[in-house]
Amino acid sequence: MTAPATLLRLMWLASPALPVGGFSYSEGLEAALDAGRLQGEAAVGDWLLDQLHLSLARADLPACAQAFQAWQAPPDACRLQSLNDWVLATRESAEFRLQTEQMGRSLVEWLRNGEHAGDPRIARCAALAPAPSWPVAFALACALACDPPQDPANNAEQALLALAFGWAENMAQAAMKSVPLGQAAAQRILTRLTQAIPEAVQQALALPEDARQAFTPGLAILSARHENQYSRLFRS
Questions:
Q1: I need a surface site. Which of 31, 33, 61, 198 has the fewest CB within 10 A?
Q2: Range of the domain at 208
Q3: Within a domain: residue 196?
């Protein structure tokens, strides 16, 4: 069983209150609404489920799982840089690139002021060029939260559950603000996502490295359009 202190740290990392700015991005949702692609709770829920399985489970979740292993002491610097390069290279719009770099940097700054501030791995993460990406930085935060590791395989699964739930809650909140939806509708969407997350996490954990992929051209086009959208609530 996970130690209570470790579980609380992982819950903390999954919280939208974590000061990394995730709440300020809609990841294409606002642009899809503006283009008339989505209308109402059911359509938004379906769209986010597709994003979970076709994007997150094939890209950021497996990259985070592999980075989590690479952050175990002593960290594998070459492996981490390679994973970070892959994440940055697969951002398909300037907006997505900005998001992963900004959130990665913000998480590193948060770690520098936390209980593991003296851990040398934080400085190594900050030094990833040109910037630490969100999945790689999140993997470090989870590795520190699970230190000393009790069950590496279980810890990796819990790290991905935290990453996926944090994404799901942010997206449910984005839908509530931009569709707009009431709180009950947003919670129903979050219920659908949380029911699907365990399967997505297992898919990510089982994915071979050469099977990682980031190919969501429709989402990339929406993200690029959002950069020039006339009226918007979310950052671009």
A1: 198
A2: 39-226
A3: yes
Residue 52 corresponds to which amino acid?
A: L
User: Tell me, what CATH number does 218's domain have?
Assistant: 1.10.4190.10
pLDDT in tens, 11-34: 999 998 899 999 999 999 999 999
CA-closest candidate to residue 10, choices 68, 70, 58: 68
57 within 8 A of 163, measured Cβ to Cβ: no
Per-residue pLDDT, averaged over 46-50, amounts to 98
Domain count, the chain: 1
Does residue 27 form part of some domain?
no
In a domain, 69, yes or no: yes
Question: In the predicted model, is pLDDT for residue 236 greater than 80?
Answer: no
Which residues neighbour 122 within 8 Å (Cβ) at sequence distance 6 or greater? 108, 111, 112, 116, 140, 144
Residue 33 lies in a domain: no
What's the rounded mean pLDDT across residues 52-77? 96
For residue 176, give the amino acid letter.
M
**Rounded to two decimals, what is the model's pTM?**
0.96
* H or E, element range at 201: helix 183-206
The burial of 63, by beta-carbon neighbours within 10 Å (0-12 exposed, 13-18 middle, 19 or more buried), is given as buried
